[in-house]
Specification:
Helices cover about 60% and strands about 20% of the residues. It has one domain: Outer membrane efflux proteins (OEP). The N terminus is likely disordered. The strands form 2 sheets. Strands 2-3-5-6 form a 4-stranded antiparallel beta sheet. It has a two-stranded parallel sheet with strand order 1-4. Helix 3 packs antiparallel against helix 6. The protein contains 10 helices and 6 strands. By secondary structure, the protein is of the alpha+beta class.
Length: about 375
Amino acid sequence: MRTYAEKLIALSAAVLLAAPFALAQSNPDNSARNAYAGSVEAVPFTPGVRQLSLNEAIELGVKHNLALTLARLDQDTAHAEKLQLLNYLLPNISLHGEVGVHQYNLAAQGFGPGLISQFGIPPAEAARIPLITKANTRIGQINFSQALFTWSGWDGWRAAQANEKAAYYGKESALGLVILNVGTSYLKVIAASSEVDYAQSLLETDRTLLYQAHQKHLAGVAANLDELRARVAYQSQQQAVIAAKNQLEKNKIALNRQIGLAPEQQIQLTDVAPYSDLTAMPVDEALRTAYQNRQVYLGMKQRIVVAERERRAIRHERYPSLTFSGNYGVTGVAGLVYHGTFVAMGTLNIPIFHEAKFRGDADVA
């Protein structure tokens, strides 16, 4: 058994290994945890300060934000899956060509001189016929197949349609969140810039108070303790200015990462924060509007439809299916006569016992 010391060492190692991951998760601007905080294909760095308006920031975010890019890929994937199911229901046409050299052993197939002579060939000539023959065959045909009735496949197709709608709503929801987040980050930079100006104003006030306290102390009308208090307040405000500037730079980097600019790109915001009173809206009207237009809610409704139709498709796997297949072409031996060939075949498939598969699919659905 492991001693308590060994367990303590193992626990300490686990904590040390997990610490960077925990720090990464605690960072709200970590794109590994929050895709809206990251972007793809960053805009190349340009020397100097880049002027950035709110509209330009939103346009860059819509173009480069990681979450919106992933949502677009999910929509493309849902559309591709729908096409795959559609191909299962639509007619399938293919061409087939074949060239081959075949060797046949007539004796192994039951042909011999005695059997050949029964076709009216004299025994002497039948004995000279080679029983090992070769043939160069040529085959060319067009194949056709069509699912005439498959209830499960039709339900799967309808589920794929609903899944594509859900992916569309997911993309639209991501678009709205990108606009909201980029706008919020833009305003945070403006707010942080105001905090820097405010902190610097307080610093100038503390500098003046320190100067007055120092002059009073030199004049002998104030104690040294008053000057010391003023100096401590001034130095504390210096730290506050440094913290405000650091926060401003962090907010700028977070904005750059959301919209695809290089983190080291210097930016200057050209829009100030507008202010206007919000139009009053009753709660009932707000809820009604949200139920009609909220993309997340509409997407979740479509996800429910997808789940219901997938479960229905699993239940209908027990039903018979009817398909038609056939082909038409020519077949012959090189240098000899070619003959036309065709196949027309309908297939009725009735599942008798696939209980384990059916129950497993039903549980998954």
